[in-house]
Amino acid sequence: MDRLMNKHVPKVGLVSLGCPKALVDSERIITQLRAEGYVMSPGYEDADVVLVNTCGFLDSAKAESLAAIGEAMAENGRVIVTGCMGVEADTIMKAHPGVLAVTGPHQYEAVVGAVHKALPPVHDPKMDLVPPQGLHLTPKHYAYLKISEGCNNRCSFCIIPSIRGDLVSRPVASVLYEAERLVKAGVKELLVISQDTSAYGVDIKYATSKFHGREVRAKFYDMAKELGELGAWVRMHYVYPYPHVDEVIPLMAEGKILPYLDIPFQHAAPNVLKAMKRPANQEKVLDRLAAWRAICPDIAIRSTFIVGFPGETDADFEYLLQWMKEARIERAGCFKYEPVSGAKANELGLPQVPDEVKQERWERCMEAQQQISAEIFQSKVGREIDVLVDEIDEENEEAIARSPWDAPEIDGNVFLPGETDLKPGDKVRVRIVEAEEYDLVGERI
Ligand code: SF4
């Protein structure tokens, strides 16, 4: 405390935009900065410098990133930019010439170096500012676990590989020790993320590494099995339906990892998938889903779909709708195709789908999925399940929790009326008494 009273403590403000992967980058940066004696400032006024972690995936995200940089410049004036949009340093400097430095995605050292330059650290090694599990921007009871960077796929609508490069997997022991530290620190749910979780370890030839003296392979199944032993909920995001994913389904049936797979299908019509250059583009996906459900009937699949991709015909769209009706996946978001500058899809020479057609398809896609989700979630009424409490809403006198079928931020909730004595991170057994459009209502058993 003496140090905090006697010296000016360098304060860094942070604006974190984009996806969970960007959030993990922000967490790593602040963990490093806190270890070096910086403190994080919640507002612009107090900060000596503001870091803006940007997203550059879609043009709309770039516009949002530029606006956030503009706001930080106007409110504070000393701004460092990092993240996916950092690869477009020229665009940033043209729009905001006063920016102190621009670094790209997962360039932790470069961004920390830029902070040192703008604001030298006041390091006191006697002060242990950082807990061993690092600092997290998510509520304490769940944490994102990033297992790799980059992607070996080349989906034609996506510029992530050109921003983040090819797949680089972390050694499995490093992933598992991080997961273990998080669980010891009170984390109840681990959300496994990457660009392509099912491809984990391909780049390092599934190299083994030692976890508590045991050799573990850097492979999707082996990692999932080990994570399943840690005692927390384990949720898998960004998985593609490759044949080897089948091996993981029994772990879900045994309750080792959550019966949940986030698979961004994006479309179903073969020629659209081909133009999109999607990985695991196989005709047998419906059979695969049926086989998974036979092993683990409780599995929830969450996905995203893009409508209005260049060249998508009425027949392609009808194919998608029919596929959705057959696949009956639990949760899905639907997006209208947006051409990203630099994406290969723009060079395919395929006709653009007019905006009004995109809009109409989007509405039909959303409507079809809403109906499917509503029917599935209606069938959960009467079930007894474990839920994880996220927050207590004192005003409405209820606890807001999630089921194994709901990921934070993107899926629904389980509301528990009257349960204000619970706290975030509590796991309780409930009976589902009602299903709403996206959410469930439960009562404690
Ligand atoms: S899998 Fe496709 S959409 Fe996802 S990051 Fe890789 S290239 Fe982009």
From TrEMBL:
Its cofactor is [4Fe-4S] cluster. [4Fe-4S] cluster 1 binds at residues 19, 55, 84. GO terms for cellular component: cytosol; ribosome. CDD domains: Radical_SAM. Residues 10-120 form the MTTase N-terminal domain. Its main location: cytoplasm. The keyword Hydrolase does not apply. [4Fe-4S] cluster 2 binds at residues 151, 155, 158. Residues 137-375 form the Radical SAM core domain. It is an enzyme of class 2 (transferase). Pfam families: Radical_SAM, TRAM_2, UPF0004. Catalyzes the methylthiolation of an aspartic acid residue of ribosomal protein uS12. This is Ribosomal protein uS12 methylthiotransferase RimO. It comes from Aestuariivirga litoralis. The lineage of its organism: Bacteria, Pseudomonadati, Pseudomonadota, Alphaproteobacteria, Hyphomicrobiales.
